[in-house]
Fold this sequence. Notes:
10% helix
Amino acid sequence: xxxxxxxxxxxxxxxxxxxxxxxxxxxxxxxxxxxxxxxxxxxxxxxxxxxxxxxxxxxxxxxxxxxxxxxxxxxxxxxxxxxxxxxxxxxxxxxxxxxxxxxxxxxxxxxxxxxxxxxxxxxxxxxxxxxxxxxxxxxxxxxxxxxxxxxxxxxxxxxxxxxxxxxxxxxxxxxxxxxxxxxxxxxx
Length: 188
């Protein structure tokens, strides 16, 4: 009997929580699939000044000691082009809370700490993550994200000598389950 009471209380609490959630008002003329605001994102360009290069952890920090300015492992970036792309394909019903996203980061440069500082735009590679998200309530989102290994471009796609640390990138390949909270109002 106690078990039935506990289960009833849990179900009642869940129903109350679901009822108390923010109700997202759907305009009556909203399309079910691919509404007008189904595609959102941003792009960002970053420049790292000399002596402060972006380190994707592909070459050892002492890579310059393996050949000086001619060392083969020069995977320290000067420029980064990154962004986020969010796709919300449903405009009506409970599925309007569902989202798929991608977060790519392209790295460019040819630098070695304490040895070689250039303004080269030579492509290094791509690190990206993608995932799915569900808006829960009151600005909270439940997210599942998969982060991939670093993809090197062109001639930098093979082993670059003893300073090369491999393709695992900063953290290797991993998955995360998380919660995001949105707050405030944008002024534009």
